[in-house]
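Key idea: predict the complex, not the pieces.
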Amino acid sequence: MSAARRTCISALAALLLAPIVMPAQAATAWTVDRAQSQLTFYPTLAGGEFAARFEQFAATIHFDPADLPHSNLLVVVDLLSARTGDADRDTALQGQDFFMSSRWPQARFSSTALKALGGNRYEATGRLTLRDATRDVRLALRFDPPAAAGAAASLAGSTTVKRLDFGVGQGDWRDTKWLADDVRIAFSLALHASK
Amino acid sequence: MPLRNTADTYGSLAKFLHWSIVLLILPQYFLAEAAHELPDGLEKLQIYTWHKSIGMLVLLLVLVRIGWKVMNRGTPRPLGAPWQRKAAAAGHGLLYLLILAQPISGWLMSSAANYPVTLFDWFQFPALIGENHDLHETLEDVHEVLFFTLLAVAVVHVVAALYHHFMLKDSVLRRMLPFSRPSA
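Result:
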């Protein structure tokens, strides 16, 4: 085997193996400013909507409008941190009829694809796991890059899920007249580019 | 029966508002007590929803009633001794105030605990205040005290009406009764 040919083969091998051996390319990684970020959900009780929040969640954000194929979102929510403004209701939410957090303490959203909708609008599709169910979910996103150097970027999103798809609401609470099936979820993240 | 009040009797609208508010308030205590006793669950939510919806309906009706009273100056001429008229005016003023304050205190109480207030599932009222646990506890007491105050004043109101009817034998009770046409 000639030296030239050997070089050629190694170059080809390097090229083919590159995607495997090199770290996966990722879009800009962002750090979430927890104090300025919220994750809110809106149940509708007896025809009235109210806001409740998750106080603890971890979001891993890789997002670059110019590189959507390598952008992705991963959000892990501590269900025990759900706060509705009423202690009895908070307790009920952790019980077996709702989150059953003793068994499934976390919910998790992981994006599978992002696409641009024009302007600062994007759409993420992904999988949401809550209790023992995993469903496809589509998030409407809005990304605002930092207004000035050092300022935070903003990523806000919302979606509406059907709680019964995830088994949230067992027994009497399967009744959607008194507790609507649709639950709107919204988040607003303040992001700083990771160093 | 005229819609408006005359010198001798209340009009049909004033009567309708008076009696519909009475009928709506009557079950409120029992609904609240029943819901209070129940464990957290769908049934508790349902009964509280009834209680709250009825309360908000009372609030709307009492606002109409006060508006109608203000617009409709021809109230039936007062009967009884001057001190009785003064007492009646004060008692009626207090009743309006309490019937107004009671649903508002309930509305505030729900708002403080971040519970939505609706008129059944037709309409949602906005929260008046933000989450506040301590204020919620205080408002619970206020709501209860207001109820027993309202009950006390309403009892005096009923006793006074019956006194007029059976002892003084005047038209004070009859002129607010539905379908009655008191003699002048």
